[in-house]
Write a structure and sequence with these properties.
CATH architecture of the largest domain: 3-Layer(aba) Sandwich
Number of domains: 4
Number of helices: 18
CATH superfamily of the largest domain: Vaccinia Virus protein VP39
Order of helices and strands: HHEHEHEEHEHHHHHEHEEHEHHEHEEHHH
CATH topology of the largest domain: Rossmann fold
Largest sheet: 7 strands, mixed
Helix content: 40-55%
Strand content: 5-15%
CATH class of the largest domain: Alpha Beta
Distance between the termini: 47 Å
Radius of gyration: 23 Å
Oligomer: single chain
Strand order of the largest sheet: 3-2-1-4-5-7-6
Structural class: alpha/beta
Length: about 450
């Protein structure tokens, strides 16, 4: 059997909040679906790689069941090692092709396929959608990401240049640096796994959105929406229909989509009313662009979301800042459409205060032992500095602040104990705010 390219050059995997059952369920509920509860659901990730996305989900949702598959045995082995170290009994990992998914795997409430559709041959794309149709529960939701035209034309041009030249990653990077083009410069600065798998891969087939939607229909699936809800609103703040989605891609020069699908027979209400906001929690979207205005109610709600970020806030908790329920509905609709707020159906559990013996999650402690990037309890990556990594490793729930300070002071290169004592409360409060502590 030929070596799998993902064994040769591992592809880094990260927690992707857009793939979390909470996000998929929230979008489904916006359009009238009744998705499975996040706390007791069945999740399949196709192309799970080294588990950077799926393992944290399984850790955070211990009563849900997870299956991850990937044809590359090396990354699956890494994922299994992490799952075993965390003692996850609700997660199964298999090194297999999606076309080899056994019948006993059953059906799933949520199916995830990130970074797969555009990078596999046509027959595998067909198999992917066939699996979604066959394995989705009646109210199930599938997440599929893929490259789209027209935005991908620039990258396709650069890819064809590199393939014509026969470049590998190193020579391709050097060649890209000689091209006076913004996209070439961005690719030249990208990590090796991006250049190797996303650009130089044997298959990289962007599609037009209308082609993807038609492909889904041929497999008994229908377009539900986008995992980033604000991407579904047009310039007037209205939810776009399927035809208008393609028009928006033309105008945005969109090059990548994170699309949600459901069974074709599921009835959808393709309108969103302000009254629906009452049933959701909301969090700040740090990537949204909001222009500060003069409306104190809008500013108050936005500041409240900022204060609790990355955690979500319930509708009732935000009403005080808006002045009335009706005003809050309109404000949240506006923030949602602008990409400044995200909807939730699940209140991520974490310890929001610093206890006498603080404890970082076992997941964060496991990851901090390997490097500075850890996953918080809201399924988001958090970058730690070297001192932060050392502190997280000490937060096992048995040590007081004084003990922690003394342990940090004993480390090579640490500052004086008095200085560490002064800085420690602020560091612990930051970790609580970043949802790294658990009760």
């Amino acid at each position: 059997m030929p070596e799998n390219p993902y064994d040769r050059v591992p592809y880094r995997t990260f927690p992707r909040r857009q793939t979390h059952p909470d996000r998929l369920a929230a979008v489904g509920r916006l359009f009238g679906m009744r998705p499975a509860p996040v706390t007791e659901c069945r999740v399949l990730e196709i192309g799970c790689g080294s588990g950077g996305n799926l393992v944290p989900m399984a850790y955070g949702l211990p009563r849900s069941r997870f299956l991850g598959i990937d044809p590359a045995a090396g990354p699956v082995g890494s994922a299994s090692a992490m799952a075993d170290a965390l003692g996850l009994a609700n997660l199964e990992l298999r090194a297999c092709d999606l076309r080899e998914l056994p019948d006993d795997a059953g059906e799933f409430d949520y199916i995830l396929a990130h970074g797969l559709y555009s990078w596999v041959p046509g027959e595998v794309r067909d198999a992917l959608l066939a699996v979604c149709r066959a394995r989705l529960a009646p109210e199930g939701i599938a997440f599929i990401s893929y490259n789209t035209y027209p935005g991908q034309y620039e990258r396709r041009m650069l890819r064809e240049m590199l393939l014509y030249r026969g470049d590998d990653v190193a020579s391709g990077r050097e060649f890209l640096r000689t091209i006076g083009h913004q996209e070439a410069a961005a690719l030249a600065d990208s990590p090796d796994d991006i250049l190797y798998h996303d650009i130089l891969a044997p298959v990289n087939e962007p599609v037009w959105f209308h082609e993807f939607a038609a492909h889904a229909r041929r497999h008994g699936l229908r377009y539900l929406g986008e995992a980033d809800p604000h991407e579904m609103f047009d310039a007037a703040g209205r939810i776009a229909d399927e035809a208008a989605e393609q028009e928006m891609d033309f105008r945005k020069l969109r090059r990548f989509r994170q699309t949600l699908l459901c069974r074709a027979e599921v009835p959808l209400a393709r309108e969103i009313a302000p009254e629906q906001m009452d049933g959701f929690l909301f969090s700040k979207n740090p990537h949204g662009r909001r222009v500060a205005g003069n409306d104190p109610a809008v500013e108050g709600v936005a500041q409240a979301l900022d204060d609790v970020h990355p955690l979500p806030a319930a509708f009732a908790e935000l009403e005080l800042y808006a002045g009335s329920r009706a005003a809050l509905r309109e404000i949240l609709m506006g923030l949602l459409a602008a990409g400044c707020a995200d909807p939730h159906v699940y209140d991520f559990p974490c310890e929001e205060s610093v206890t006498a013996r603080p404890r970082a999650s076992r997941l964060a402690r496991y990851q901090a032992a390997a490097g500075p990037m850890v996953t918080n309890l809201c399924h988001m990556p958090v970058q730690l500095d070297p001192v932060g990594c050392r502190l997280v490793l000490l937060l096992n729930g048995t040590r007081t602040a004084e003990t922690l300070a003394r342990r940090l002071a004993a480390l090579p290169g640490a500052g004086p104990l008095r200085q560490i004592r002064r800085a420690l409360p602020g560091s612990l409060e930051w970790m609580a705010r970043m949802a790294l502590l658990e009760g």
